[in-house]
From TrEMBL:
Name the UniProt record assigns to this protein: Molecular chaperone DnaK
Superkingdom, taxonomy of origin: Bacteria
Annotated Gene3D superfamilies: 3.30.420.40
UniProt family annotation: Belongs to the heat shock protein 70 family.
CDD domains: ASKHA_NBD_HSP70
PROSITE patterns recorded: HSP70_1
Keywords: ATP-binding, Nucleotide-binding
Organism, as annotated: Cerasicoccus arenae
Keyword Ribosomal protein: no
Amino acid sequence: MAARYSIGIDLGTSNCALAYVDTTAASPSTQLLNVPQYEALGQWREDPVLPSFCYFLTDDEARELHPDGAVEGELAGWSHTRVVGQWAREMASLSPERVAYSAKSWLCHRGVDRESKLLPWQSTVLPVDRKLSPVDVSAAYLSYLRVVWDRQMAGKDKTARFDRQDIVITVPASFDADAQRLTLEAAERAGYPASTRLLEEPQAAFYAWLERHPGASELATAFPQLNERPELVLVCDIGGGTSDFSLFEVTASEGDEHPSIRRLAVSEHILLGGDNLDLALAKMVEPQLADGGTLSTSAWAQLLSQCRTLKEWVLADPAPDPAKLLRVSVTDGGSSLFASARSAEVSQGELLTLMLDGFFPECPVDARPAQERTGLRELGLPYAQDSAITRHLAGFLRGRRVDALLFNGGTVASSLLRERLCAQAAVWQDNAEPGMLANDEPHLAVARGAAFYRFSERQAAGLTITGGSGHAIYLEIQGAAPKKRRGKTKRKDAPVRSGVCILPQGAEIEAPVRLVEPEIQLMVDRPVRFQAWTSPSRPEDTVGEVVDLDDDAFHRLPALTTLALLPPNVEKPEGGKLAVHLIAELNNLGLLQLVCESVRRVGDRQRRWSLEFNLREKLNGDEPIEETPAEDTGAATEDLQAAQAQIGQCFGLQSNSEPQSEPARLIKQLEDVLRLKRKDWNTALLRELWEPLGESITRRDRSTEHELAWLMAAGFCLRPGYGHPLDRYRMQRLWFLHELGLAHDRDKAIREQLFILWRRTAGGLDRDQQAALYHTWRERIYDDAKQAYEPLRMAGALEWLPSEDRMELANHCLKLILERADKYCDHAIWALGRLLTRTPLYAGEGAILPVSAVTQAFDQLARLSWRDSLAGLKTTFTQAARRLDNRDHDLDEALRGRIVAKLTESGAKEDQLRRVTTFVPIEEKDRQQLFGESLPVGLHW
């Protein structure tokens, strides 16, 4: 049965909204769903806007709202312990550690595990099991809208149930494939049907305008030059968390009632919007409230909420008075609420200057976003490095003419900001001011447009927007020169990467694109990796075209990986390589699907293998990992082959005529064969040596010497478990060791070497694997005997463990140090440093323990002498107190001062003190210290 309703949902950073079209109505048009929601404890209101905030109730609040433990009508949120909407937004300033928000921004943050329980960010009042992942928070909003719909629109009419309708969820045009997948995952968790579609927000905003202006006369008024030439429309969508720009071409179609509309380009993902204005204003006011210092977390949240309100007041005023003063007040602890209240004033003129000069400054047409970090960074999110939206817009347009502007998003609801952007666009094109397409509902247009899009698509009538993929996709290749070069010329000494276009910009939905030339050779029976790149600004590139990949026009995606396994009875191709065609296709959800298809029959048929995005690839900071080329081992080919054969001989089946191997001397023998000392083995070489070790994982049981040698070599070759192509697959093979167990598990040396191996490779284990290690060896980890030395070090390296487990480990280390102050406790000191560090090796900011953990440890250890047997505490607290210039993780100045004084008294080195007192970028020696030994040469982070 055909769906009765077309539903559009704006899943926004700041607000959500739902619009719908009743296809059975006499005159179908978009309508808005009024969403009931709490505005205070026990008080309801209805509003078409659902603020994107999720409040975690206290036990008393939960009992008051739901005395019987049930959720009446399921309208209190995702569960009886949480509330979404208006009240949750109000509580963001009163109980910030109980409110999750900006989930949409977290969905596209590639530097964290977006399915881990991160939110509310840095909360110390909620246990980890009560927190939610960004996917789950997004699902909470979507689930709430579904329940409201079924309650208000369906009732007993099963045909009107939400899961039987055509549903479209909007996402930023710049969302990459990973963020799109996670959005669909959130929809699935919220009970949405499998047919749910995604639509880019700028397109939805344009569709909303088209619904309001359907007549030919209105189009002619909006586009006066349409009969003479195509006109370009820039949709400028600036919301709470992101800025999105999309360029559309409107062309008159001879003989057709409606013109054709094609999307030409979309901007890169820009994590920059109204939230950044709030942060900037709060930063400006904070020194007045904190006597030049910084506010507490609670007071900062209050200030941020008030600054959001001030910004909205000023932007809503069509004629703001620059001299008018605005007041903010916060409370910052103390026994008396009134005694601790602090106030400050800021003029509307100061606020306007901050917004216009800081975020919408005038700039030339050839301006580009600054690469150094000038933007604000709070809440753990990697906001745009340049806070000037106008420079981002200039970089997107690159001199292209714009005939009309359509503004969308709450930030540009202000006429002042719209006029500033229109005037800037006019300057860029010789004072030819573009027209402004009316949008009187910038906070609701996206939901309306999504519903109208789905309705128009079903009706197969009216105006539709074509354009397909907003990005071109490329694969990095070797040995092929570009057919033509565009843009600026590279320096002679700059590395040149070549890429082949596999999906052109503008590729249509469900239209497979086959890459025949250049031919791709796929390695079979072992994991392979392709480096993918994307560009939103190269509509002229065609399938198979080879181009230079530069960092200005192209951006690295997570790796594409596959494992091409052939059946055992199929003859392997010569050299282990198979010629394949690559087939790229956008499905009807707008997600990229890539398939390798054998050119010729293999066995009884042609074979196909899908390429998957490597979502496990760890990213350090905001940029993807740079890899060393796999063939750059630093060793001669014949030496490498001989070394691999040496490993195979050591663990393989040997005949009586072959010389017997000496496993204890394996590493020394490899040094001799490779003619390289082990300290000079780079990452690529180590991973090549791992291959025969991986194949020997079940053949290490020949003797205790063989198993000990295998564990030592495996840990050495795979450390630190990530940082090189296909390490994820290598770690999957290594994990068999945990499942198989040790062959000689009663041998103490072998058990210790097992713990060392897992410590060395911990960064390549996922969350579940680390938890399995922790719980399997928990008894040994917490044993006070000498046999617990290596288990405790291993546990300290498990950065993916829940914070409560890591806090328990930190307390155990603290206890050992206090009890053994005059004895050996280096293992506890080292593990404590890993647990308290402000700069985790691989798990990102989510692994940083709260400042209170550092305070507790320092208060108990400060009375001891940090010399002799406890000298390692200087390194521990250099890591624990390291200055990041990040409010979420930096110590307060009083505690920092105490630690600096203790470090100075203990004879700490100058560079240790410098890392605590000033911000110093992470260096290789910092990682070496955290890791506890040397890291492979050429490891890329």
